[in-house]
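Morning, I've got a small favour to ask if you have a moment. The fold is given in discrete form, as structure tokens running alongside the sequence. I'd be grateful if you could look everything over and explain what you see. No rush at all, and the record is pasted right below.
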Amino acid sequence: MKPHCGPTNIRLRVHISIAVPHGATICVGNETRRWSDSDVLVFDDSFEHEVRNDSPDPRLVFIFDIWHQSLRTDEQRLAALDAVAKARYQRTVASLRAGMGLPMEDDLVADRRRRTIY
């Protein structure tokens, strides 16, 4: 994958390796790491990063985002979000606090595709 940057630094990206062949690496900034089985890598994807897999075998990594550690309160998180993300965050928090679980959002994948810079 070509070097790219995430759209914001309000989150940290978490990679948990599931099946990663020897020779698969990730470079964030000037630092290169290799995955090991069940390894967890956490990085700020607003820094330029790229993944390489010189193996013929596929790389399988579970990826999710967490809040940047400096954003600890709802107020700090809301201040860091744009209007669309702010509304989604408020709906999600309200649903969770009401005991209703995560709200269904049909547009999450489309929104992610629009916002991701590759």
